[in-house]
Write the structure tokens for this entry.
Amino acid sequence: MTDSIVTWIAAQSPDVRAELANLIDYGPEPEFTLLVSELLPVVPCPGLVDLYYDIWYCIPSRLALRIAVKQVHIQEELVQYLALAERVLFDAASCKAFESQLSDADDVEEVVFWLKRRSGG
């Protein structure tokens, strides 16, 4: 673990540090921890890190993760975003379409609307 990751973990609340410790014991890809630490200096509340990792692991679009980490900080909303993204962004073609039309600077409501239109819901 790099010094920057250690410093980032130390900056988190005790509950988030505990969540991060459990995840690190699990052995996530170092790129995941680095990306989240760069995009979100302080995780707002516990429960988010595991959901961000679910997006990293289950959704083949890194843009979907960047949008989530930068903009979705309420656990219930993140669960809904994950479920919707899983339904739509399941293969290379759907991810390519997503990434060609959206960016992590787009408002999360616009992203969710795009996903909903393609999920049929």
